[in-house]
Amino acid sequence: MLRKIFFLFFILVNTLQAFAQFGSTLRRNDGFGFDTTSTNKPTSNRDISVDSLRKQLDGKKDSVVFNAKYIKFTKAAFLEDSTRLFNLDTTAKDFQHFNPLNDPHSPTMNLGVLGMAFRPMLFEPRKDIGFDIGLHYFDRYIEGPQDIKYYQARARYTELYYVSPFGGKQEEMFHVLHSQNIKPNWNMGAKYAKTGSQGYYAGQVSDILNASLWNWYQSKSKRYTLLVSANFNTIKSNETGSIFNDSVFTAKTIVEPLFERTRLYNSREAGNARHNVKNNTIFVKQFYNIGKQRLVDSGEVALPTQRVSYAFSYNRQKYNFRYGRVDTTGLFKNYYIYQDSTSDSTRLDHVRNEFAYSFYIRGKRISFLKNEVKVNAGLVQDYYRYNQYTYNKNFQTLTLKGNVTYGLSNRINLNVGLQQIFQGPYIGDFLYEANSEVKLSNSVGSIFLGAYSQNQSPAVNYEMQTSNHRRWDLNFDRTKTQNLSFAYSNPKFDLKAKAEYFLVSNYLYFGADANGDITPAQVSGNINMLKLTLSKDFHVGKLTLENYIVYQKTDYESVLRTPEIYTFHSLYMHQDLFKVLKMDFGFDIKYFGKYTANSYAPDIGQFYNKDNTRFDTWPIVDAWVRTNWKRANLFVRYDYLNKGLFSRGYYTVDRYPMPYSVARFGLSWNFYD
After folding, report:
1. CA triplet 424, 429, 433: central angle to 5 degrees?
2. Left if phi > 0, otherwise alpha if psi is -120 to 50, otherwise beta: which for 655?
3. DSSP assigned state of 604
4. How far apart are CA 448 and CA 411, in angstroms?
5. 439 or 62: whose pLDDT is higher?
């Protein structure tokens, strides 16, 4: 099947490429909501373009030493208005933060192993409308079209990346990426990534495969742009059902973690519990500029006055859970389909067609995407085919999308957007939002104001579940979310601050029934949440102290189950060695306040509110060294350095211990030829 998809992908690329050649003859979560795609600024008319370098260096190819300045990249989101290019980030900044579950600005509650289920630790509501499959416990391991980087490469670009523990198998990661320009206006590339983890307890094994292909073509006139990409994701993740020993960190034991008994794993028997998830996407998007267009940056970037676009995507998701034995521990109390084993399957096919038209009114002076009025209107058609055992659902929805941006000046802009479903079973779902930026001055900083109103239908797994151990058929009201936010940013003083207020009506969550089994529930009243975020860095000589602090206050902590306070601090010193080796060494300190822990249902991958278990919490300290030398970055780190000082371990989910201390290293190497 995979070969067929690859074959169809290249047929599609070649077909659209032929169309593009014809068209060219006819005469784009830092916790604050700020853009964090790259620490580098997009190219401007002061930057040396790739094609300009090509012209300058023609006839001198034998003497050219290629480096990162010859490679730039963008993403589909930055091609909506024109072509925004970013420089490669070749520094070692944050290089030691390799684990998506341990994002300093978006931590998670998880089962203790990369590749197993997780949920956000902080309050981070999803801003989706319409159909939602509800299975998001592996989302950070899955790459989609929005994650593809499209390169503009004067030289062939290859990236190697590897992370491994010293003398163990916990969290090994590898990826190789290659991209090159076929022609000055045509780039293709591919990426292959593999992640494997083996935890401390029996059965904690996961295997993740991510592969992607992409194509970026732009006509010589800059009027036509074509993006094509394909993403393939496979996740195989064992389920242990948790360990039996709930005193593993408080009572003395001579049993090694590997030999602690778990509920669903037995090395002497076949048929251990496992999730097998596949998520594949084919994506095609085309832009065409009509009417007049303004060329800037030596003719490398075209600013259109009108633009039409069409995007097509096909996504297939498969979720399988297998357990080849009968549970004797009481974890699975009901057997609705099979009496001697479990083989649950959920499948979703999603086809999307999106049409959009944009027009722009710009002043004579160009400041990249400023001093303009931009109006964008679009129509989205979604077709879904959902299947779970005997339950089948086929339907389509039509969504109206609109966006108006008004740049009052270089210092003030206003953006208003809407998404409204007007046809299909989810008619009435909407998302209205408004954002404004006021730049006071370079020294004083900027203010960001935001608000949104969301009306979201329940995810399908809240209302319908047909699996071997869970069964319900329910109806819930839509969840309504109102949000107001105020943010302040001052790059000069490395300061960011944000205040958010959420009012959530009819909040959906998973609770427990009288037997302690997972069951959907809905809060009939309103939930209030105040979230304050502060980021401030201090620099004294070669010392740097980075601080990230979140304070959350809600009247429904027993339902939301999120800590009141979360902090992350990084203290390090910079040192240059031999003028070419740049080194930072220091400590990361993470702390989260006491909260009521979730339980976990392994067969459906959902966290739910059961017992009122609250764990003591202590700071978690990691030590690390990171270096940058020409094309290579290296880190060495020791996680949980203070294990045994305050406690022998900690939890984020009930009965699922977090990892012990471990030393590891990581290496990345870029090649430009």
Report:
1. 140
2. left
3. T
4. 12
5. 439
Query: Quick one: 28 exposed, middle or buried, by C-beta within 10 A (0-12, 13-18, 19+)?
Result: buried
Cβ(660)–Cβ(200) below 8 Å? yes
Residues, the chain, total?
673
CA distance 240 to 656: 9
CA distance 478 to 60: 65
Q: Where are the beta strands (DSSP E) in 334-390?
A: 342-362, 372-388
How many C-beta atoms lie closer than 10 Å to residue 673's C-beta?
11
Q: Enumerate residues 6+ apart whose C-beta is below 8 A from 191.
A: 175, 176, 177, 178, 210, 211, 212
pTM, 2 dp: 0.89
Query: Cα(654)–Cα(128) distance, rounded to whole angstroms?
Result: 29
Which region among 18-32, 575-589, 590-604 has the lowest average model confidence (pLDDT)? Answer: 18-32
Query: How big is the chain by its Cα radius of gyration, in Å?
Result: 26
Q: How buried is 491 (Cβ within 10 angstroms: 0-12 exposed, 13-18 middle, 19+ buried)?
A: exposed
3-state secondary structure 486-509: EEEEEHHHCEEEEEEEEEEECCEE
Closest C-alpha among 652, 47, 58 to residue 298: 47
For the residues 573-584, what does the mean pLDDT come to? Answer: 89
At 546-578, the pLDDT tens digits run 999 999 999 999 999 999 999 999 999 999 988
As a whole number of angstroms, the distance between CA 85 and CA 72 comes to 6
537 by DSSP, 3-state: which? strand
| Local structure of residue 147 (DSSP, 8 states) | G
User: Between vectors from CA 455 to CA 608 and to CA 433, what angle results, nearest 5°?
Assistant: 115
